[in-house]
Amino acid sequence: MKPVFRDLTPDRPRVTIRFGGQALSVPEGETLAAALLLAGIEAFRDTPATGRPRGPFCMMGACYDCLVQIDGVTRQACMTEVSEGLEVHRVPRPGDADD
To answer: What is the pLDDT of residue 80?
Structure first.
């Protein structure tokens, strides 16, 4: 699927991160939410109530729709800057089996 967002400064340095095991080359210094959207990833988690996909909505830390898990800690992707080697996972839904 082709990303619906495009990088306005494609010549800036890039770092490699992983989302759910998938390696992604993303712009250095970008927020995780923006970097994942640029990589074509729109659904970051599923809502616990209905299982519907969720992704960034406000991009400023107010809505919590962009929650991801980094090193076992649930964080807002829009408030997290990417860095080389960052390992990101979807937040497990209650009742999901641990990997």
So the answer is: 97
d(CA 50, CA 55): 15
Range of the domain at 48: 14-89
Rounded to whole angstroms, the Cα distance separating 7 from 90 reads 24
> What is d(CA 90, CA 19) in angstroms, rounded to the nearest whole number?
8
Residue 86: exposure state from Cβ atoms within 10 A (0-12, 13-18, ≥19): buried
Residues of the chain under the 70 pLDDT cut: 1-3, 94-99
Q: Give the SS3 label for residue 23.
A: strand
Say how many domains are in the chain.
1
CB 37 within 8 A of CB 5: yes
Query: Model's pTM, two decimal places?
Result: 0.88
5 is a domain residue: no
**Position 1 in a domain:** no
